Amino acid sequence: MKKQKVSSAVIRRLPRYYRHLNDLHQAGVERISSNALGASLGLTASQIRQDLSCFGEFGQQGYGYNVSSLRDEVADILGVNRGHCAVILGVGNLGRALMENFHFDRFGVTLAAAFDVVPEIVGRSCSGVPVYHTDQLEEYLTQHPANIGVLTVPGRVANRVAERLVSAGVKGIWNFTNIELTVDAPDIVVEDVHFADSLLALNYMISEAP
Amino acid sequence: MKKQKVSSAVIRRLPRYYRHLNDLHQAGVERISSNALGASLGLTASQIRQDLSCFGEFGQQGYGYNVSSLRDEVADILGVNRGHCAVILGVGNLGRALMENFHFDRFGVTLAAAFDVVPEIVGRSCSGVPVYHTDQLEEYLTQHPANIGVLTVPGRVANRVAERLVSAGVKGIWNFTNIELTVDAPDIVVEDVHFADSLLALNYMISEAP
DNA sequence: TAGATTGTTAATCGATTAACAATC
DNA sequence: TAGATTGTTAATCGATTAACAATC
Fold first, then answer.
1. pLDDT tens column, B89-141
2. N or C, fewer C-beta in 10 Å, chain A?
3. Within 13 Å, how many C-alpha atoms sit on residue A63's CB side?
């Protein structure tokens, strides 16, 4: 096992490995070679072995990898077993879509609470998650620390809310607003899901042809 | 202007340039140097000049770039002025979030129609976009061609719906399902917005520290 | 044992950065 | 004019691929 900083390119591929290994496991596949795994993901066998070698030795010569144990290893690398805890800010359509349809727990994250300012939803609950008023954010986090803040608020309040999350001790922000967050506390991670950037890239790619 | 295949790394940066140039323009900034632009985006001046040089010569020695005309150039490169037309499949929370809060038109895309199977919403309209029954997809697209299909259906029907979109002439699929689409018609572009992959990457990054 | 496949080292390829002549 | 800044060529860096000894 080499001990060096893992490149972002590798990190971005790990979730795909994880997803595919899960599928294979569901399908009852027991073992897989780097060659076969690469073929179904559109990558070279070399790259997969190289990627995995950043974290340890998970295979066996002449055999390949055991699907379920490799899946478990990758899950572990990705931090699925660290008891991460999240709160979500903004219970609009997008917030609700995540709360109702996205299974945080499948990725090792407990969605503990939601916050909004709209009186009709504050005090109720949504998919089993209680919705509090945003004013109560700091008070809540003091009593129930969380390390992830999911940002599904309107763009204009995004930075303000992000600052509050960081002040309250959150380590990572999953940013769904189209705003470039200005948070730059040294060890805070911002993961952007910029719909606009994604659509523009798609736009570009389909505009190529004559 | 060099005429070579533009790398995906460049394409992914263009939307950020575009967003930032828009912000600058809104703020009344008239000119900017590659140096200043790089500083505010966390990139080197070299990289920005290198990236832009893939598409043309937009600056002026000793002056830099005119913000609004560079913005227009980038918009053009990204295909914002090509009259792209989209349909959305699946009017659940996520579909509605996109229809109500995401401004397709700001990115040069007209969202023309939505499709779902739930009787309560079929026949109605949402944010001015008519909702049809999914059975009518082919018929609709024959009469109103679209080149983008937005996929916000449940995962289990994702591939089936994707195939239908492709058969009906769509060129790009904006995939919000957590499924790896198997569509591989030669010139079809799939742009994935995999929430799970994004959250797992965030998980990893905040799990780093001791 | 023979065949398969790993982990790792070396070679290649591509992307980023640096340098600089051209010029506004 | 002098200073600033471009577009581009060359140098560096990092990531991907290929090769192969080790070994199950």
1. 999 999 999 999 999 999 999 999 999 999 999 999 999 999 999 999 999 99
2. C
3. 8
